[in-house]
Design goal:
Low-confidence stretches of chain A: none
Number of helices of chain B: 4
Mean pLDDT of chain B: 85
Order of helices and strands of chain B: HHHH
Largest interface: A-B, 19 and 19 residues
Shape of chain A: elongated
Distance between the termini of chain B: 22 Å
Low-confidence stretches of chain B: none
Number of helices of chain A: 3
Largest sheet of chain A: none
Order of helices and strands of chain A: HHH
Number of strands of chain A: 0
Oligomer: heterodimer
């Protein structure tokens, strides 16, 4: 593993070591303060090692990433693929939150009686400016 | 990814507010007022919340994904009063891609 001992990596190892040991030392320091009667330091005493552990975790993950990259494996798990698009226009659409929906041209090849009826209703309303929606007589089909 | 961003933004905001409170507490404790009450109250809380901030930042950074240095930078930005709010905005606007439209046929 020569890649993990390049100057940049040695600097990272040192940084991780200094940070982790530093956190432990700070935790020890808080312990001594707590033992001297500073009650609030008991909490800090537990927090510092957690931060130190986080440093180790990040360091370990970076090392693993570098190893995998060196071995030619994929380094990042891809985002889960989007759920398949609902088939056809009648399929139910469920949305978790408001989204921007692309406004596309309605495909003309598939007849949609519901849409035609609605358009007829809108056209009738536009043609009768004073009319209320309840005045709509219904679609005159030929 | 948008969920991770939301988590990050929420915890960043909370930690930012906590940090401001802690700064005020420091002034009260070590300043002429000599009153350690605020530090004693907020100090522990901020420590634990900062852990969540680190976790959320880490989660977001591996989902986007960010370069390693950027992740460290964002983590450190959470420890600086006032700057943390600016950093949160910068991250949300420039370092996370926008959500793709959910429905494109």
């Amino acid at each position: 593993m020569k890649g993990l001992w390049s100057p940049a990596w040695v600097a990272r190892h040192l940084l991780a070591l200094v940070l982790a040991v530093g956190c432990l030392v700070l935790g020890w320091w808080q312990y001594s303060r707590a033992a001297d009667g500073n009650a609030i330091s008991w909490g800090y005493m537990f927090q510092w090692p957690v931060f130190g552990g986080f440093v180790v975790f990040i360091w370990w993950r970076e090392v693993q990433l570098a190893r995998r990259k060196a071995a030619g494996e994929p380094v990042t798990a891809p985002e889960p693929p989007a759920p398949p698009a609902p088939a056809g226009r009648g399929a139910p659409v469920t949305l978790g939150r408001p989204v921007r929906v692309a406004v596309g041209q309605a495909t003309g090849d598939a007849p949609d009686p519901e849409l035609d009826a609605y358009n007829d209703y809108l056209a009738w309303l536009a043609a009768h400016p004073g009319a209320r929606p309840s005045d709509y007589p219904g679609r005159i089909t030929t | 990814m948008q969920g991770a961003l939301t988590r990050y933004r929420i915890i960043a905001w909370i930690v930012g507010v906590c940090l401001l409170a802690l700064t005020v507490g420091m002034v009260l404790k070590y300043g002429p007022a000599d009153d350690p009450t605020v530090v004693e109250t907020v100090g522990q809380l901020h420590g634990f919340l900062y852990m969540f901030y680190l976790a959320a930042t880490f989660d977001l950074s591996r989902r986007v994904p960010w370069p390693f240095k950027r992740m460290l930078l964002v983590m450190l930005a959470g420890t600086i009063p006032f700057l943390s709010f600016w950093a949160e905005r910068h991250v949300s606007r420039h370092w996370v891609p926008e959500a793709a439209p959910a429905l494109v046929e």
